Structure formats: structure tokens, C-alpha cells
From TrEMBL, chains A, B:
InterPro entries: Cyclase_SnoaL-like, NTF2-like_dom_sf, SnoaL-like. This is SnoaL-like domain-containing protein. It comes from the Bacteria. Residues 17-111 form the SnoaL-like domain. SUPFAM superfamilies: NTF2-like (SSF54427). It comes from Alteraurantiacibacter aestuarii. PANTHER family: ESTER CYCLASE, POLYKETIDE CYCLASE SNOAL-LIKE DOMAIN. GO terms for biological process: polyketide metabolic process.
Amino acid sequence: MNRTAGEAANLQLVLDMFAHVLNPMDSSAVDRFIAPGYIQHNQAAEPGREGLKKFLDMIREATPEAVHDVKRAFVDGDHVTVHYHVRRWPDDLGWAVMDIFRIEDGMIAEHWDVMQDVIEGGPNPASPF
Amino acid sequence: MNRTAGEAANLQLVLDMFAHVLNPMDSSAVDRFIAPGYIQHNQAAEPGREGLKKFLDMIREATPEAVHDVKRAFVDGDHVTVHYHVRRWPDDLGWAVMDIFRIEDGMIAEHWDVMQDVIEGGPNPASPF
């Protein structure tokens, strides 16, 4: 790895956000990691930082046992990629998710994601992870 | 950007693969970019390099007008992330896709991806890109 100190800090910020916001689905921790002008590209969430809090409250209410299991994460300058497995309940096949975050001034300023159902019995015996 | 020469080469390899393999859906160009021991994690494709060729032939036959429009791409060491928009025909809303590639010895050795339908009329007016 040839990461700069800035890149290492950007990656750590995102992993800390997973630990303190996404995994516990804790909307009260959002303001420590997410910039006031947060640009949300997720298609199911309402815009901005307040939309994210509402989304977290909604998923914690609906699926309190959900886990967000990070499989790999990368950083290139201001952008961090995370590939992870969401399981809503213990035997859930779940979703494969990739997120890209843009960091600005030490906060997460923008977010894109793609999510897909994990299937069983497809043509590829390899894990999606 | 603080990319090493090796990182720049890895990113360029993937972008060249998009230009010569994925965009033209050209299975005959696969062996120039994809390692013999290619590990495929896409859930819809058959395993390995031969499975990829079969998959490309299938999509070129089914959707000859398809475009793979790269929105952003990043590199961290041996791993490259690409976020792109697949449209199967001119007015297709299409799919949002993120790929992660692992490069080994100048070839693409492993691939993970996640894809999701682009929707209209959701709660977020922002583009998924």
C-alpha cells in the first residue's frame, strides 16, 4: 500500500462512520461524520444529512438486528470505496452493497451506492464477496 | 491525486478493458486484459475467463446497443473501483453498477460487482451518479 497520511485519515473516517453510525444505525452520531451540505445519491433515502438521519431511524426500527459486514475498503485521494454485506436478520441472504464516499475537510460530503440481493443457486458458485 | 506509477497503470488497464472489452462487448479481446485464473464474483456470470467470454457474447446478442458509461474510477494499490451507468437501449433508465477489480502481474485477476436498477420518482431527486 502506498497511501498518504491524508488517504489513511479519509479511509479511517469512513470506517469509523461505519462503526459509530451505520452499524448501530445511530442517527445521533451522524453530525460527527457527515458534512452539513451532504450530497446523497442513494435512490431510497431523502436528500441531505437530515434525510440520512430519518433513513437510519427507519431501518433501525424495521430491522434492529441488521449487520453491515465490511469485506474490503479502498481509498484514492478524497474518495473511499467500501464493499459490504448487509444482513437484516441472522439467516438473511442479504444485500451486497458498494459505497463510494467523497471526503471534504475531514467530513463525508457526498455518497453514492449500489445494492443488490444476494442469491442462491445462480450460475456462479463463487461468493459475491 | 497521489497515485504511484503502478496505480496509474492499474487504473489505465481497467479503463482500457472497458474500451476494448466491455463497451464493445468483445469476447475476442478478453485474453489481452483478463488473467487465465480470473476469479469472477458476479452472480449472473459463469466462472472464470471462459464464462466471461460467454457472458459478453450473450449480452452483445441480447442488447447490441448497450453502453457502459463510466462516471468515476479510483485506484488503491492493486484494486480499481469503477462506477458506471449501463443503458441497454437509448431510452433505458438502465443500471447503476460498481465494479472492483484486483490486478495481478498486469492483468485483471479478480472481479466483484453490484448492480441496481435506476428508478424514477423515488424520494431523492439527485441522480444516482
